[in-house]
Write a structure and sequence with these properties.
CATH superfamily of the largest domain: NAD(P)-binding Rossmann-like Domain
Number of strands: 8
CATH class of the largest domain: Alpha Beta
CATH topology of the largest domain: Rossmann fold
Structural class: alpha/beta
Shape: elongated
Strand order of the largest sheet: 3-2-1-4-5-6-7-8
Distance between the termini: 65 Å
Mean pLDDT: 93
Radius of gyration: 21 Å
Strand content: 15-25%
Helix content: 40-55%
Largest sheet: 8 strands, mixed
Length: 266
């Protein structure tokens, strides 16, 4: 990908305006892009304060003059949201549709099924959020696949937002993303959820390793269980990683019990 210092101002419509969309919007606005949003929740006051035009429903957003439509709904709701939209209201030329979900094969297949055939699709996963990206996006990965792109200039213009912020640009198929994410993101969330169930807490004698576990627990539970459930249900590789974790725990337990038995036999 060619380097660029900045992208030209874009008109970006955002479907879903939860915490992650709000986080992205701060940087998009800082870079001079014009934003509009629609959400099932009433974010009109917040949008007014931020300088984002708020629409009451998704059809109004789709009928606007957005050049890019950013899909930032939850994993579990995107199917209902996308299928509820009247795409016959789309202006010509059609906007570039960009999803930012934490799974990739699922939205890719959904968008290919539901969107008009002439609509361009870019699947992305910014591998950061409000906590990890609060000091900026430099050095943080953006994973993306150009699923169906005809307007390469518009797609490049959008990607340059992240490139100009210093992101590591990782072009990867949605399938490969989900394979890797099952071993990294889903496994991380699973360990964090297990620690939360154990109700671990700080002590006067914390080691650095235990402090890392506490931080993992803290970071994980900030995300909703719906997000965690979506990482499992809509990533076909996650079930195998869960089974691998269960097997590994069983093996370690057996080794420990074997070691204990060996000591007791001395």
């Amino acid at each position: 990908m060619a380097s660029s210092n900045s992208s030209s101002p874009l008109k970006i419509g955002i479907m879903g305006f939860g915490p992650f969309a709000q986080f992205l919007s701060q940087t998009l606005l800082k870079r001079g892009h014009s934003l509009s949003a629609a959400s099932r929740s009433d974010h009109s006051l917040l949008c007014s304060q931020m300088g984002v035009h708020f629409y009451r429903d998704f059809d109004e957003l789709i009928g606007s003059d957005a050049e890019v439509v950013l899909l930032s709904t939850s994993i579990i709701s995107i199917d209902n949201v996308i299928r509820s939209v009247s795409f016959d209201r789309l202006r010509r030329p059609l906007p570039l549709f960009v999803d930012v979900l934490s799974v990739k094969e699922y939205p890719k297949e959904l968008l290919l099924q539901v969107l008009p055939e002439e609509a361009d699709i870019l699947c992305t996963h910014p591998m950061f959020g409000p906590e990890s990206g609060k000091q900026g996006w430099k050095g943080l990965p953006l994973v993306y696949e150009k699923v169906r792109i005809r307007d390469h200039s518009l797609c490049q213009n959008y990607l340059e937002i992240f490139q100009s912020e210093g992101c590591i640009m990782v072009e990867m198929s949605c399938e490969e993303h989900d394979k890797v994410a099952a071993k990294t993101q889903f496994l991380t969330h699973t360990i964090g959820r297990v620690l939360a169930e154990m109700e671990i807490d700080s002590t006067p004698m914390d080691t650095k390793g235990f402090q890392a576990l506490l931080q993992l627990n803290k970071n994980t539970v900030k995300d909703s269980f719906d997000l965690y459930g979506g990482l499992f249900v809509h990533n076909r590789f996650a079930k195998q990683e869960l089974e691998n974790l269960e097997l590994a725990l069983k093996i370690v337990k057996e080794k420990l019990l074997g070691s204990a038995n060996g000591v007791s036999d001395l």
